[in-house]
Design a protein that fits this description.
Blueprint: H1 2-40, H2 43-60, H3 65-75, H4 79-104, H5 110-131, H6 135-164
Helix pairs in contact: 1-4, 1-6, 2-3, 4-5, 5-6
């Protein structure tokens, strides 16, 4: 009975990991393209778009936290900050696409490499958060930590499975 429950838990974890890796792939494409796009558009254009997107919300509730945060961030976006964000998103996208591609091709050698790279990225993100807090970076970091847990769990499970066979 315990063995069956353990198998069900492992199957559920694997299904969650499969969904997570697909989402990482989709996210990787969006970040890769978004990073390139962000690098080539002006800060003024970004500010105008954000103001337009949140104008209705701010008209309804001028104290809306998220809308005000987004508009203020866009209005104060320097060229250097925009280029840093573009480069960061682009690199994060490449890492996500690498993870997606290697995991989908069942390249188990890539798991430890991906885990180390993601851990280093999280260390950098946490350092960045301590210097300049950002809700977006905080959410990205939390998602990356959850993904690392899932990836490590799958790696150890598959490694045990391969050793048994």
């Amino acid at each position: 009975m315990k063995q069956k429950n353990r198998e069900r838990v492992e199957e559920a974890k694997e299904a969650i990991f499969d969904v997570a890796i697909i989402l990482k792939g989709v996210n990787g494409i969006i970040e890769f393209v978004g990073g390139i796009f962000l690098f080539f558009i002006s800060s003024t254009f970004i500010s105008r778009i954000v103001a337009r997107v949140f104008s209705h919300e701010l008209g309804d509730d001028p104290r809306d936290f998220l809308a005000n945060y987004a508009v203020n961030f866009a209005q104060n976006l320097t060229i250097a900050t925009k280029e840093f964000i573009a480069l960061y998103i682009f690199i994060h996208g490449i890492i996500n696409l690498f993870l997606f591609t290697t995991v989908m091709k069942k390249k188990y050698w890539a798991y430890p490499i991906a885990l180390v790279v993601l851990c280093l990225l999280i260390v950098y993100q946490v350092i960045r958060l301590t210097h300049l807090f950002s809700w977006i970076l905080c959410i990205i970091t939390i998602v990356d930590v959850v993904f690392i847990y899932l990836m490590y769990d799958q790696y150890t499970h598959k490694k045990r499975k391969l050793l048994i066979m």
